[in-house]
Amino acid sequence: MKREDPADVPFLPSLGQVYLVATVLFQPPDKKPRRPFVVVDAPLSLRGRIAVVARTTDTDVDGVRHDADPALSLDQDGVFALLKSVEAQEWTPRNVLLYGQLPPAVLQQVMRRWYE
Q: In sequence order, what are the beta bridge partners of 36?
């Protein structure tokens, strides 16, 4: 019996966590193979969808500004700018890398922007 590769086992993230995510999980395709995203909504089971907001270093786009944050491996200023979602089954260690927790004040701004 073949064992499942741990890199392919899906898991659920928590609100406000920032991940470097493989952009092939989203449509339309992204010009970068991986991009930072913050989790803004997670389902209660792996049958749902995870909502995330993409962070770009193009500071001219509309969104929530976010200064460089070395603690999150983000060495350039950026903007949380685009709401997307992904099937929870795709949220695996092979596809995502945890960078850390977004500061509460920034998360509150992101949440207000897309959910109020």
A: 20
Distance of alpha carbon 72 from the chain centroid: 12
**Please, what's the largest Cα pairwise distance for the chain?**
53
Distance CA 2, CA 22 (A): 26
pTM above 0.85, yes or no: yes
The β-bridge relationship of strands 78-87 and 49-56 is antiparallel
Strand order in the sheet with 78-87: 64-66, 78-87, 49-56, 34-41, 17-22, 96-101
Tell me the pLDDT tens digit for each residue of 4-60.
888 999 999 999 999 999 999 998 878 999 999 999 999 999 999 999 999 999 999
With beta carbons less than 8 A apart as the criterion, state whether 15 and 108 touch: no
